[in-house]
Every structure is written in structure tokens, then in C-alpha cells.
Amino acid sequence: MKKNLNYYLFLFITAAFFILNSCNSTEISESNLPQKENDISELVLSFSGDIMAHDVNFKMKDYNRIYDDVRDILLNDDLTFGNVETPVCEERPLSSFPCFNIHKDYLRAAIEGGFDVFSFANNHTNDQGIQGIDGTIKSFNALKEEYKNKELFSSGLKNKEDEDFKPVLIEKKGWKILFLSVTELINSHGKSKHRLYYSEPTKTGREKLLLSIKKMREENPCDIFILSLHLNEAEYGLKVLDSKKAWFKALAQAGIDVVWANHPHVLQDWELSDVELLNEETPDSPSKLKKNAFFMYSMGNFISGQRWKVNYADPAYYREYTGDSIIMQLRFKKIDGILQPEMEAAPILITNYNEKDAPVIKRFTQEWIETLPEKERAYYLKRLELMRAYLPKLK
Q1: CA–CA gap between residue 255 and residue 291 (Å, rounded)
Q2: Is residue 35 part of a domain?
Q3: 269-299 pLDDT, tens digit each
Q4: What b-and-e string marks burial along 41-52, b requiring 16 or more CB atoms within 10 Å of the CB?
Q5: Exposure class string for 257-289: b at 16+ Cβ within 10 A, else e
Q6: Looking at the 3D structure of the chain, how many domains does it have?
Q7: Contact indicator for 231, 184 with CB cutoff of 8 Å
Q8: Is residue 111 part of a domain?
């Protein structure tokens, strides 16, 4: 009988052990269930310097050749931004410096080359007066109709004189991007100046622009606010002025996330800046908030005829810098719908290279330079050295 009791007791304890172990196993497996992954969204934006058109540019037979060496870069991002430094008016003849004009075939090649977003506010916008502005609007609308399957955007021009500055809202891959093109410099102060986004580079003018930008940001919720700014400063300067750095920070404090600047026709430095903001909800005891903003102080020329006559004897001559620039690619990230403060900047060196009849764009690499004839190879090696000397970030 005792043996039977011991036997049954053994069976009971063994069964209890397996039951308890089974429960613990269930608890462990539940705690190890795969967690929901974060929703990560990335956006890649490319920015260029000035798309110019001197006579040597618009006289070439095939404009598409300009983009052959960089087309794959510009077609494999999400959006590419370019500053068109000329009217695009079919009713006016082709014209070079000082009063530019192109026809829409030239802009069509830029679209085929990968450009999506165009800045039209700069000092050459009204080179052809009101007719040139109307012609540019007409040409761009015709190209938008032609490229229905490729969304195109622009900023900087007004249909009527009394229009206020109005940013363009671009929606891409679930991102909302606000874009505004403004110039602080114009060549003609006639009636046509009221048909473009011109902001006077005075204290009063800049205060007015800051208030406008702040209002735009409040009224148009977005992930990124990009400002194309054509600068009121001397051309060909390589150094970033302290006054410009202060102005860009003020723009960021007003609501801008990316300042993309042009006019000097040469490449200047860029930086990711830590900008302090004031929390206006507690004015009596303001707490400092921070945001990151990206500043491109001058993107130089993307394509032009300014270095058509190469100075092989003096590669350091100031005009030689007009032929070298970068494509700046910025990578933004959202995690679970929240924009991350870090942004990745990847500059891609490019140069204008003179083929037989016209300049084209080449990736400015050591490997490409080695393919050139001796005279050109020596020149471009020196140019690469000079670019890296004043812009160490290119090394």
C-alpha cells in the first residue's frame, strides 16, 4: 500500500512539474513576441547652382548632352532643385549677357536631365521685362502639361503685381515640403520688378520677409521649408561673410529649414547649423529650443559659359572658379512620422568641361582627370587642388 502511495505521489509531482513548466514556457514565448518595427521614411533632395545660358550654351545643337554625366544622379533622388537664371520666353529672341533669354527647349533638357523644382526669382528674371515674365510662366505651364507624368514645381513669379509671396506645397512620398524662391537683387527696377518675388535687402525689407516666412510656416504645416535666396552681394567671392551667416540664422529662426543661396557664381561653404529658438509660449521666462538648419551659402554655377575661354596659364584666376561646383544631396529621415534632427549631406563635385562646341557637366573626379590630354589634365588637377584647399569638406 505504501508503495502504491509513493507511486501515485511520484506521478502527481511529475505531472505538476510539467504543467507548471508548460505555463512558464507560455509566458516566455509571449514576452518574446516580435515587436512592431518603427516606420522609417527617407527623402533625398538634390540642389544645384545656377542653370545659365550664355551664347555658347544655347547655340549647341543638343542640350541633352549637358546632363549626360550626371543624369543618373539627378534621376535617382526624390526631387532635384535648380535655379534658372534667365527668362524662358518663346516670343523673344535667344539672348546672352547682359539680358538673357532662352526658349523652352533649353529648360526641357533640364527636365529630361532630372530637374523637378525650379527657382525663377533672381537678378536676371526680368531681363526681358513683363513680356519675359509672362513668357516664362507660359513656357513653364506648357512644359508641365507636356510632362504630366512627372510633377514639376516652380516659385518666384507673380501672375499679377499685387500678389503676395506664396510658397509652393510639394507632397512627395508622404512628406510635405514648402518651397519659396526670393531674390534680393534685380537688374531692372521698372514695372516688371513687381511681377517677381523681390525683397529689398534693407533692414525694413528683411524684417518684412521674416514676418512673411513666419506666417507661411504657421499657415502651411510641413516637414521641411526650403528657401531659394538670390543674394545681394558681390560676385566671385569665395569667403562666407559673417553678416550672411547671421542673416541665414534669422531666416531659420523664422521657420526656414534649408537656405539654398545663389548669385556669386562660385561655390562657397555649407553647414548644418544648430539654431536657437525662443519658446514664445512663455515670454516671461523664455526657454531655449533648438533646431537644425542647413545653409548652402552659394552654390556657384551648374552650367554656364563663364569659363568657356579657359585660362590654362593661371588656374587660380578668379574667373576659373565659375566652372566648378557641386550637386548637394540632402537625406532627411522621419521615424514614426517624426522628423529627425540629423540630416546627411553628400556633396558631389562637378565641373564644366569644354567639348568642341559647348561646355558640358562632368563629375569632377581623379579618375576622370586621368583620361584627359596632358594640358587639360594639368589644369584640372590644379583646379581640384584649389577647390579642396578652400573647401576642406571636399577632401
Answers
A1: 10
A2: no
A3: 999 999 988 665 555 555 568 899 999 999 9
A4: eebbbbbbbbbb
A5: bbbbbbbbbbbbbbeeeebeeeeeeeeeeeeee
A6: 1
A7: yes
A8: yes
Quote the cell numbers at residue 71: 543624369
CA count, 13 A, side-chain hemisphere, 206: 16
268 domain-assigned: yes
User: Where are the alpha helices (H) located in 99-257, listed in sequence order?
Assistant: 104-112, 129-146, 203-219, 242-254
Please give the single-letter amino acid code of residue 115.
Answer: F
Give tens-digit pLDDT for 215-225. 999 999 999 99
Q: What was the pLDDT predicted at 9?
A: 45
CATH number of the domain residue 69 falls in: 3.60.21.10
* CA distances in angstroms from 124 to 2, 5, 263, 305, listed in the order given: 109, 105, 10, 16
Q: Which residue has the cell 519659396?
A: 180
Distances (CA, A) of 137 to 95, 112, 158, 178, 220: 18, 19, 9, 20, 24
Question: What does the alpha-carbon distance between residue 163 and residue 195 come to, in Å, rounded to a whole number?
Answer: 8
Three-state secondary structure call for residue 88:
strand
How far is Cα 302 from Cα 115, in angstroms, rounded to an integer? 12
> CA-CA distance, 315 to 112, in Å (whole number)?
32
Q: How many CB atoms lie within 10 A of CB 346?
A: 12
Asked whether residue 99 is assigned to any structural domain, the reply reads yes
E strands, the chain, where?
Answer: 40-51, 79-84, 117-119, 153-155, 168-172, 175-183, 224-230, 258-262, 270-278, 288-296, 301-303, 324-335, 338-339, 344-354, 359-363
Q: Which range of residues forms the domain containing residue 328? A: 40-394
- Nearby residues of 76 by Cβ (< 8 Å), 6 or more positions away: none
d(CA 341, CA 60): 44
**Is cis: bond before 34, omega within 30 of 0?**
no
